[in-house]
């Protein structure tokens, strides 16, 4: 049986929220440790920020982090806005392997996520990228 996913409160320093299958004790300091990552960088129109973040925090991000092979998710509020004043964010998912990401890409749940995201057409745009961890520094 997979452990329950936990949502930890917003980090007061980095202003991020993250989800994990691990306990706060073992994961709190290192949510990005893992061999593979899936990143979603997105911009939200100012008038829709509360609504979009409520959708993300209300289940979407936790559902993603609960998928087989996904270890954690962390959202960053980036220090940038575009020329229209849209704020930038990035969600970083840590995965066990590229196989876990390939399984997600083939999962029918993606169609539901696309339908849900369609409600934010015109106020949310995103780009996705992924890759293997190649180098890491830290204590």
Q: Would you give an account of this structure?
A:
It is built from four helices and six strands. It has 139 residues and is an alpha+beta fold. The protein has a single domain, classed as Alpha-Beta Plaits (2-Layer Sandwich), CATH 3.30.70. It has a six-stranded antiparallel sheet with strand order 1-2-4-5-3-6. The longest helix has 17 residues. The N terminus is likely disordered.
Task: Identify the notable features of this structure and list them briefly.
six-stranded antiparallel beta sheet; alpha+beta; Alpha-Beta Plaits; globular; 33% strand; disordered N terminus; single chain; 139 residues; 6 strands
Radius of gyration: 15 Å
Q: What number is the mean pLDDT?
A: 81
The succession of helices and strands, N to C, reads EEHEHEEHHE
CATH first level: Alpha Beta
CATH fold annotation:
Alpha-Beta Plaits
Report how far the terminal alpha carbons are from each other.
32 Å
Q: What does the main sheet amount to?
A: 6 strands, antiparallel
Secondary-structure-based class equals: alpha+beta
- Approximately how much helix is present in the residues? 25-40%
Q: Tell me what portion of residues adopts beta-strand conformation.
A: 25-35%
Low-confidence stretches: 1-29
Continuous helix count: 4
Q: In a few lines, what is going on in this structure?
A:
This protein is α+β, with helices and mostly antiparallel strands and 139 residues long.
Ordered list of secondary-structure elements with their pairings:
Elements: E1 6-8, E2 17-20, H1 24-27, E3 36-44, H2 49-65, E4 70-81, E5 87-95, H3 98-106, H4 109-117, E6 124-132
């Amino acid at each position: 049986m997979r452990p329950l996913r936990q949502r930890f409160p917003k980090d007061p320093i980095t202003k991020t929220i993250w989800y994990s299958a691990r306990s706060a004790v073992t994961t709190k300091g290192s949510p990005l440790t893992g061999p593979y990552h899936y990143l979603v960088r997105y911009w939200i129109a100012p008038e829709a920020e509360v609504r979009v973040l409520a959708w993300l925090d209300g289940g979407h991000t936790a559902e993603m982090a609960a998928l087989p092979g996904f270890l954690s998710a962390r959202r960053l509020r980036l220090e940038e806005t575009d020329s229209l004043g849209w704020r930038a964010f990035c969600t970083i998912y840590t995965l066990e392997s590229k196989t876990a990401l390939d399984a997600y890409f083939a999962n029918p749940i993606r169609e539901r996520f696309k339908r849900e995201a369609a409600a934010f057409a015109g106020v949310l745009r995103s780009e996705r990228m992924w890759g293997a961890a190649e180098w890491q520094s830290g204590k």
